[in-house]
């Protein structure tokens, strides 16, 4: 790879960066909520199966495109094209993914700002600043603008430093910290009244629900979206991987870390819900559905922390720091996609491109904050419900139907000489060609 582009200096660095991109609020916030709403352990079981049987092959396809092209998403896909219509199709997929990543980051920055505000709130209480603590947890335009800006400045600061000194360096620091905090919180929650009932609901599947259509579709969607598929993020990360690396193994390791952290998040939040219920907090409605739904983190958990007494201040701080770290490891990958495109296609210096694009996305976040009721849900739907599945599906179609099979094999063999005779190669090309586009299309159809 070109020295000017930079790249990951180690296998561990790539795994932490790619896992950091995949592990975000979708895993630590979205996965437990989906689990609680879809039969607990039955959902977990289906999610784990689908993550490896369907999401992993699509994830592998995006990494392969990036390493083959050694460039941003658009250029990498156009290198695989042989005529004008294919190049135009490649541009639509690559640039569509970049736009999708920018839109996701615009609302993601707002959510991450909330997490940062909630992390500071316990410290404010501890210091006796009750008015400030109240301001931090009540949604308002000034609070949202300030914390969205703080979060975006952190993201810009990391991306300005490049791949090795920015993305890789900080991912190697933040991801172990995230995993450590998660495990410590799980251990603590396990000691509280009501936790055992939550662990039982989370770990003992009701096999009669495993084949429910809604559960299958929800689990499939969570598996695809938690791996950052359909945003061109993994294409650009793939372009920073050395040719000598075994992509089959690397992609499997990242998928394993991603689903493991999602599993650990459920192991924390589902029992925590039952602990809160034991303390008198209403969790489920009479029909068994979640009362809070997507607002679970901001409604139920603060009530749980408040019921813990003095130690609840420290647990609340640790939890929302954990959420902020998860958000940051994802946001740096989402900003890298647009930045790499502008740097390489328009020959603009990285620091300048990062600052301009980052501030532009922050301005979009500000517009969403000021018009919250109108735009917040709309941007989420456009980017995640429509954008991600369409781009991910088109990406699989491109690899399965346009990229020549012998070229794909040659690219994989650079880091794995024996792959041609492996079980992976016998299955993966057909998965990518037929099963993955159909499965993603099914998720998209259901979402409509």
From TrEMBL:
Where does it reside?
A: Membrane
- Coiled-coil ranges per UniProt: none
Top-rank taxon of the source lineage equals Bacteria
InterPro entries, from UniProt?
Answer: Na/ntran_symport, SNS_sf, YocR/YhdH-like
Q: Which UniProt keywords apply?
A: Membrane, Transmembrane, Transmembrane helix, Transport
Give the bilayer topology: Multi-pass membrane protein
Q: What is its main location?
A: membrane
- Known CDD domains for this protein? SLC6sbd_Tyt1-Like (cd10336)
Q: Which residues cross the membrane?
A: 12-32, 44-68, 89-117, 145-163, 175-195, 215-238, 250-274, 311-335, 356-380, 386-404
PANTHER family in the cross-refs: TRANSPORTER
- Write down the NCBIfam families for this protein, in alphabetical order: Na_transp (NF037979)
What is the name attached to this protein's record? Sodium-dependent transporter
The source organism is Colwellia marinimaniae
